[in-house]
Amino acid sequence: MILNFSQTYEITYGNSSNGKVIQSTNPTIVWVNKAKNYILNKRTIERSNDYPFEITKIEKPTNTIVSYAFLNPEKIISTSDNESIAKQNFEMTSETKKIVGYNCKKAVTKINSNTIEVWYTNDLKIKGGPSTLGQNLGLVLEVTRNGNSSQFATSIKKVKKTGTEKIISQTPTEMDILSYKDLLWKSRFITIPIFNNEIINFSEDSKSNDSIKRFANGTVILRKIKVPEISIGENIFIELKQQSNGDAYDRTGTVFMIPEDKKKSFLDGLKNGVKTLPIYDNDNGKIYQGVIATNQYLPPIELMRFFTAFGTEKFNYLQLKDKTWQTITPFRQDITELKSNFSNKEIWIGIFIGNYDKGGHKVSLDLTIHKSDQTVYSNNKALPLFNTTNIMEMAGQEYATMFNNEKGLVVEFTLKKDLREVQLRYITTGHGGWESGDEFVPKTNTLFLDNKQIFSFVPWRTDCGSYRLYNPASGNFPDGLSSSDLSRSNWCPGTITNPNFIKIGDLKAGKHRINVVIPQGKPEGNSFSAWNVSGVLLGIE
Q1: Number of other residues whose CB lies within 10 A of the CB of residue 116
Q2: How far is Cα 390 from Cα 111, in angstroms, rounded to an integer?
Q3: Is the pLDDT confidence value at 1 over 60?
Q4: Which of 119, 120, 117 is nearest to 145 (CA)?
C-alpha cells in the first residue's frame, strides 16, 4: 500500500459554486505517482472521519479503479472496475491556462446531460486527479460542471510517505460493484425492520405469535419495536412494499402507531373488543368507537394512508397488449414530523388492509432514520386528535359515516402548555364505490378551530391513470377507461394519500375544539358513503 514508485505528489483541492469559493475544513487530498492515484480527504488522513467513508485508488497503467468503503471500525469492503476509465470520451480543445503554476489544457465531455470541463497538465509526467474522470489525459487540476461548480487544485507538494498502509490497515472484503454500492448506501442510515413478507388476510386461521400480533380475523398485524433516540437533523421514513396474495381489489390501507400515553389505548380495543373503546356520538343514530381523543384515550396515529392496487403480482397473468405489469407496489413516506412520538421509545406499529379474502395481501415494512441537512419540521409535539378509519372493520368497528349531519366530527382537547407554530396534519379520503358515492363525487372538507374556519378544500385526485401498470385486475369499461383510471376523492389504487399541513399559528394552553364538516352523500340501497379522516396537532412546546 506504500506509494514509493518514483516521485509522489500530494495535491489539495478546493471547491467553488457560482464563482464563490466554498470554505471547507475537509478538502479532497490526492496522493499520486506513476503507479497509483489515491483519492481521499483530510479527515480520513487524520483518522477523524465519520463512518461510512470511502477511499478510491486508481492503479496505473491498467487504470483499474479500486474503491474501499469503511462501513465501521471493524469492516472494510472493496470492489474493482477495470473498464470505465477506458470508456471515457473527451473533446480536446485548444484552450490553455495555468493552475498553481502548471500549464493546463482543457478537454470537454458530457455525463448524464451535464457538461464537464477537465483541465489537466502534462508538466509532471504523471496521470491522476481528484476523481476517476480524465485519468488518461494527464494530471487533472480542475473539473467544472455546467460552468458553475468547480473542484480545483490549491497546492501541490512532493512527499516521501503517505501513510496509506495505516489507513487501509486490514484486508477488505471484496465484492461485485452492485453489492458494494448497496452495502455502502445502507450503512448511511439506520434500518429497523418491522414486517417481512407478512400476510394480511381475512381468515379465522390467522394467529398471533411471539413477535407479530394479528387481530380482526387477520386484517390487522401489529408488532412492538424499539426506536433509538432521534436527534435534530435526523429524518424518519417508512417504506412499505405490498403485493396481492389473492385479493384482486383496491383496498384501504393504513400504517399506524398506537400511543400509550393515556389510561386506555387502541391496543385495548384490539385485545378486548371494539366495545371497550371510547364512544363518539354525534346524534345521527350511530356510535363510533375509538375515533377521537379524550382525557383518557388517544386514537391511533396514522403514519401512512395507502391504497392497494388491483391485484399487483398475483393477477399479472391477465395480459393486455403493451402492458408490462409491475410486480410490487412500493410506498415510501417521510414521517419526520411525528418523530417526537418515536424517539427513544418502544412502540406498537401496525398495518391494516380492509379485505375479506383468505389469500389477502403480502406486505413488508421498514422504518429508516437518516442524518440529513434538510430540516423542515421543528416541532417537538405531535398530538393525535382523531382517526376515523375503522381499523377494526372486520371486528365490528363502525364505518366513518358521522358526516351525514351538520355536526360532523367534533373533537375537544386540552393543551397543558402553550403551543407555538401549530399545524394540523390532516389526511382525508372519501369512500362509497358506486357512481353517486363519495368516492367518485367531489366534496368540500371544511375545518374549524374554536368555531373559526381554518381550512377548506376539495380533496380530489385526477392522476389515477398514471398507475395503470400496478393494476392488472382493474376492470375495463366500454368507454376505454379502466376502473383504476377514474378520478377519486383524494386517492388512487396503488398510491399514498399525502397529508395536508394546515397552518394554525400559536395556541394557548387550555381547552380547544376542532370540527370537521363534509357534506356526505346519502346512501342508496345497501350502498353508503364514508370519510376516513385523521388529524395530528403539531407544534413546539
Answers
A1: 19
A2: 51
A3: no
A4: 117
